[in-house]
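Q: Could you fold this chain for me?
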Amino acid sequence: MTKFILYILFSFYTFTSFAKCSEGGYDIFPNQNSIKLNSLIIINDQGSFSSILPQITKKYKAFLISGNEKIIGNQKIELILVKINVGYRKYQLILKPSKKLKPNKTYKLSVEGLDEFNKNRLIKRYNYNLKKFEDVQWVAENSIDEIEPMWLSKPAFNNKKAIEYGCGPEKFVNFKLDVSDNSSNCYFNVKLRNKITGLVSEFLIVDKQRRELKIGHGMCSGEFEFINDTDYEATIELYDICGNRNNETVTLKFTSPKSTSLE
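A: Sure. Below is the predicted structure, expressed as structure tokens.
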């Protein structure tokens, strides 16, 4: 009887974990209320099996809209695809405005052709204080950023972990670091090479706190998939949200963590 109850509880946990993974969502950067005139826009999904990111610029078109585009002086600026990265059950879009933004204008993110459900997931953010969805939008600053980000301290190994959960394993190798920049967000362009197979994968990891680099994936999804207990080499380039790149490349070598079951 005890084993049966544990089996039911485990099955319920697995089902709810899978449902959470299937639900997904999106992270959009810059994650501030303002935007530099030369800023890129990065959109990450959170591992949804129904992600629409691969269809943007194909089936759908993304824009920045300032007010009513039919009124003189307002703008409807198409976002051009710079690159799409594919991780472990995860997609990432790097987009660039096709025209210059105007200072002090408010720009709203818009994707043509979305139904109401996907609009709420992609181009709206939930305001927990007001308990409602709001448009993803930025006020354009009267400045551009052409200054490269700086390493204050380069990545140093901190720890690694691998844990089995109901929906799948979580595997990360964590590095401590510190960076400085004038823009709201920095990111690390990581090229990860499996030293056994030679296979190389690439993803931009956005640094929200500027203090840690986590290479791997969570229970549902992530930037990189690991093979247990395997040697990898990661090449790290530091950028800011405006595309400015630090001249120095950092190379990290490590052995991936080996999964352990929760007990």
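A (continued): The chain has two helices and 18 strands.
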